[in-house]
């Protein structure tokens, strides 16, 4: 097997690997909505359900989760803004990075990035091996690099979501993680806060107005569910309003 | 000792005088048992009331086959017109340890004996297996589980005891259990932890940090008994044994026991043995011990494999199910809540159901579950599953029947229960979220139960305005909302790609270097090729001397080109000066000399190795 053949075989194998992984997000259609599977429309509909039921925190939580999978969906953004306004929260603020980089489902962008990596690597190897059509290969490397940049940008834009929590009940925010001190302010219901630290049942959060304080951890629900955290609706008993 | 005896006599005399002063009222005592006839597993109450001089004569009854536990005690002293009267009432809980007819003698002076008939159990046992008893009744029943054997620790300071309703159970079946720790008053300094199971064949529900407290007389000695109510379950079948142990700190006597010959009285002797008294005189010390219960034998049966329903989730017990829907008249697009209630006794942690999915004309969401316990051990209660649904088509719609299966240990068979299908009238109309005031009323009327019970709040109404409609659920799903970028399994994919590309890059670079070296060597040292061929011939012949001499000549040719000298003029000394004594070239030169003068035999593998070294040196010279 000569060098070019080896490189092409390697590239083909990696592309197959990427395609195989991509099948997990392409998935099958119309699967039942079960707690272990998420889809943007199902989360959006669930958000609508809770919005109609007068449970804004649950509605915001599900809209935020839907927004992770479908960041450009105008319906999700509209309904999320609407529910936030209905409980007196400030208008939805979307960062520049989120508006311009988050163009699709992050998992799809992840695989686009992987594909870009494969294209870039394969074209550079082919150029190194002295293949013909060097300009075409350079163009391919540039396209691959662009795909990787898109994916990396999305990864950076998605990173803050890992620390975002929804306030499930109005909760006092204090200067230290104890109930013995007077509250600084009250974290409003359904607000999305950024968790910065955690200590013995308390969480240090920053709200959308930039205020920081320690709140009870049990009053927060993570936007991205974690295996060790009760996040399903049964554990979050938000009272209907 | 004489002084002590005189003091005791004096105290007794003073006590007699005081008692005499109190005996101005007429003495009387009564005793009754309620009920007079019980079954094994139940308990009766023995109520003893005494007044006047008889009040101080109440002592715990001692009847073989019956256990008496102090349940309540009260004393009343009255003084009317200078006339004092004392009355005392003591209530014992009588727990039978065997069936039969028992005569309980008068526990106070002058009280008449009573008769208690204990019938064999009719199989119902003391476990709450049916009916709907109030919580108080359940707690009372839980505390009257049949008494287990009491094995007091070797030093008589404490015991651990299990009370169980049955000793034969199925894997996964939960049964109520009382764990009792008895501590001799004054002898136990502290309880250092909750009782724990000894072994991995059983699981125990979490124990409360505040157990029930009672007094109990065993062999005439008072014990404080702490009782934890919990539920026990077996995790594997077989003939199993269970013990429970708990850590304690007890006070131990360090001084010699007083000579009983001087004070030959049980009470006074016990008084001297009391570590509290001994501690006062510095004659006791504390020691940490672990007290274990007597082994309790169980027969744990495996759940039968035959006739096991396909949707069986491991629930074992006695359950009943019912279902309803939050509203049977809705507007298409409005949400309704389907509820499934599963109530009864059993292992509710294994009570699960997938509810509905893939129902025509309905959009289904993931259900939620909530358990409401009706006792303090989570053995009896109700688990409610709620599932949001939205009708997608108007007309008379039907929600299919729900089913739930469990194993009933009393009948020893699987039970499959099904609810009836539910009919919902779905009318066409503008969904609430599109802003119609009429539709909003319909929406709030068909919200989840809490909303419909509380009525529509203004906030809830405001939220429904301006919402865009639901979407048809299509497309793929993902198992986790965590983006792939942050999942270790996916992070490894780019890492593997990077490693693969890096490996390919370096491999290609190495190949290019070798090719270049070969080309340079072929161009610069034409005679090297014939020398290398000669080395191969020497290797094949096993001629070490010729091999190294040829190798030295090949290296001399390569060096001569670089140093611009005659190849024959390059000596070992030149090489050691310019390349170092430990260089490969210097070593080849030395070996060539040694082989020429002393001879040498290289194994075949060494021939190959030395040739590769020589080739690399020649290649390096060519590159330089």
Explain this structure to me?
Chain A starts with a helix and ends in a 19-residue tail after the last strand. Chain A has helices at 3-26, 40-52, 56-69, 74-86, 96-100, 106-128, 134-158, and strands at 164-167, 171-174, 183-187, 192-199, 202-206, 212-216, 220-222. Chain A has 241 residues and is α+β, with helices and mostly antiparallel strands. The radius of gyration of chain A is 22 Å and the shape is elongated. Chain B is 29% helix and 33% strand. Chain B is built from 13 helices and 28 strands. In chain B, the strands form six sheets. In chain B, strands 1, 3, 4, 5, 8, 10, 13, 14 and 15 form a nine-stranded antiparallel β-sheet that branches. In chain B, strand 14 (212-218) and strand 15 form a beta hairpin. Chain B is elongated and about 145 Å long. The model of chain B is unreliable at 6-25, 123-143, 258-269 and 430-463 (pLDDT under 50). Classes of the chains: A alpha+beta (241), B alpha+beta (624). Chains A and B meet through helix 1, helix 2, helix 3, helix 4 and helix 6 of A and strand 23, helix 6, helix 7 and helix 8 of B.
What features would you highlight for this structure?
heterodimer; A: 241 residues; alpha+beta; five-stranded antiparallel beta sheet; two-stranded antiparallel sheet; 7 helices; elongated; B: 624 residues; nine-stranded antiparallel beta sheet; 13 helices; 28 strands; 29% helix
- Radius of gyration of chain B using CA atoms only: 46 Å
The pLDDT mean of chain A sits at 80
The proportion of residues in beta strands of chain B is 25-35%
Main sheet attributes: strand count, strand direction, barrel closure of chain A = 5 strands, antiparallel
Average pLDDT reading of chain B: 75
Counted beta strands of chain A:
7
Overall 3D shape of chain B: elongated
In total, the number of strands of chain B is: 28
| Overall radius of gyration of chain A | 22 Å
Distance between the termini of chain A: 71 Å
Q: What are the segments of chain B in which pLDDT stays under 50 over at least 5 consecutive residues? A: 6-25, 123-143, 258-269, 430-463
Q: Report, as a whole number of angstroms, the end-to-end distance of chain B.
A: 113 Å
Read across the widest sheet of chain A, the strand sequence of neighbours is: 6-5-4-1-7
SSE order of chain A, one letter for each helix or strand: HHHHHHHEEEEEEE
The amount of beta strand of chain A, in percent, is 5-15%
Specify the helix fraction band of chain A.
40-55%
Structural category of chain B is alpha+beta
The most extensive contact between chains is: A-B, 78 and 63 residues
């Amino acid at each position: 097997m000569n060098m070019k053949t080896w490189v092409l075989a390697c590239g083909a194998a990696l592309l197959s690997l990427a395609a195989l992984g991509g099948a997990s997000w392409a998935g099958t259609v119309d699967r039942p909505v079960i707690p272990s599977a998420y889809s943007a429309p199902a989360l959006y509909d669930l958000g609508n359900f809770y919005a109609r039921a007068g449970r804004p925190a649950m509605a915001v939580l599900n809209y935020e989760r839907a927004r992770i999978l479908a960041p450009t969906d105008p319906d999700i953004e509209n309904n999320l803004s609407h529910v936030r306004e209905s409980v007196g929260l400030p208008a939805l603020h979307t960062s520049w990075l989120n508006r311009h980089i988050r163009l699709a489902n992050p998992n799809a962008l992840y695989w686009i990035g992987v594909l870009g990596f494969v294209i870039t690597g394969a074209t550079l190897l082919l150029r190194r091996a002295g293949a013909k059509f060097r300009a075409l290969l350079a163009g391919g490397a540039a396209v691959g690099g662009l795909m990787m940049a898109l994916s990396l940008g999305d990864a950076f834009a998605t990173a803050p979501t890992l620390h975002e929590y929804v306030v499930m009940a109005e909760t006092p925010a204090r200067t230290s993680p104890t109930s013995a001190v007077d509250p600084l302010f009250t974290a409003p219901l359904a607000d999305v806060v950024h968790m910065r630290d955690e200590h013995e049942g308390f969480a240090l959060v920053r709200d959308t107005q930039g205020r920081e304080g320690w709140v009870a951890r049990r009053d927060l629900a993570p936007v991205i569910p974690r295996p060790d955290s009760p996040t399903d609706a049964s554990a979050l008993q938000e009272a209907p309003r | 000792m004489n002084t002590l005896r005189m003091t005791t006599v004096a105290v007794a005399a003073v006590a007699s005088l005081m008692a005499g002063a109190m005996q101005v009222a007429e003495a009387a005592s009564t005793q009754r048992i309620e009920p007079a006839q019980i079954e094994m597993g139940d308990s009766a109450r023995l109520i003893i009331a005494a007044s006047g001089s008889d009040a101080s004569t109440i002592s715990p009854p001692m009847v073989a086959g019956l256990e008496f536990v102090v349940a309540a005690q009260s004393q009343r002293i009255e003084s009317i017109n200078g006339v004092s009267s004392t009355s005392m009432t003591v209530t014992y809980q009588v727990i039978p340890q065997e069936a039969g007819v028992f005569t309980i003698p008068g526990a106070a002076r002058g009280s008449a004996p009573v008769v208690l008939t204990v019938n064999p159990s009719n199989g119902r046992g003391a476990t709450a297996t049916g009916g709907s008893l109030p919580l108080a009744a359940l707690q009372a029943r839980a505390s009257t589980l049949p008494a287990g054997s009491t094995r007091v620790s070797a030093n008589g300071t404490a015991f651990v005891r299990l009370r169980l309703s049955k000793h034969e159970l199925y894997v996964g079946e939960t049964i109520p259990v009382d764990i009792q720790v008895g501590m001799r008053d004054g002898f136990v300094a502290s309880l250092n932890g909750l009782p724990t199971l000894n072994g991995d064949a059983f699981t125990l529900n979490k124990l409360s940090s505040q157990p029930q407290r009672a007094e109990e007389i065993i062999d005439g000695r008072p014990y404080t008994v702490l009782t934890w109510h919990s539920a026990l379950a077996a995790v594997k079948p077989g003939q199993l044994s269970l013990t429970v142990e708990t850590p304690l700190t007890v006070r131990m006597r360090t001084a010699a026991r007083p000579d009983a010959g001087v004070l030959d009285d049980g009470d006074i002797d016990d008084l001297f043995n009391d570590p509290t008294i001994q501690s006062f005189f510095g004659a006791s010390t504390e020691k940490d011990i672990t007290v274990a219960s007597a082994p309790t034998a169980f027969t744990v049966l495996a759940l039968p494999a035959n006739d096991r329903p396909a949707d069986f989730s491991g629930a074992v017990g006695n359950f009943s199910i019912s279902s309803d829907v939050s509203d049977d008249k809705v507007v298409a697009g409005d949400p309704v809540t389907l509820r499934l209630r599963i109530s009864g006794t059993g292992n509710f942690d294994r009570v699960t159901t997938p509810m509905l999915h893939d129902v025509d004309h309905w959009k289904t969401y993931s259900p939620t579950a909530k358990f409401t316990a009706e006792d303090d051990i989570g053995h009896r209660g109700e688990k409610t599953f709620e599932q949001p649904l939205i009708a997608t088509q108007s007309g008379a719609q039907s929600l299919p029947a729900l089913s739930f299966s469990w194993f009933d240990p009393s009948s020893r068979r699987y039970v499959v229960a099904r609810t009836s299908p539910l009919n919902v009238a779905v009318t066409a109309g503008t969904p609430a979220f599109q802003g119609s005031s009429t539709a909003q009323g319909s929406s709030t009327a068909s919200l989840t139960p809490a909303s419909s019970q509380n009525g529509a709040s203004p906030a809830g109404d405001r939220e429904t305005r301006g919402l865009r409609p639901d979407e048809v659920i299509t497309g793929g799903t993902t198992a986790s909302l965590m983006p792939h970028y942050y999942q270790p399994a996916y992070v490894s994919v780019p890492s593997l790609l990077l490693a693969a590309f890096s490996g390919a890059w370096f491999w290609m670079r190495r190949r290019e270097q070798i090719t270049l070296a070969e080309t340079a060597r072929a161009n610069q040292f034409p005679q090297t090729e014939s020398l290398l061929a000669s080395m191969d011939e020497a290797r094949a012949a096993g001629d070490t001397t010729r091999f190294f001499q040829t190798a030295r000549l090949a290296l001399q040719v390569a060096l001569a080109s670089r140093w611009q000298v005659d190849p024959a003029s390059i000596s070992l000394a030149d090489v050691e000066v310019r390349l170092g004594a430990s260089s490969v070239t210097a070593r080849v030169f030395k070996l060539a000399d040694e082989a020429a003068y002393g001879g040498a035999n290289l194994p075949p593998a060494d021939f190959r190795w030395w040739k590769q070294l020589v080739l690399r040196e020649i290649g390096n010279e060519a590159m330089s």
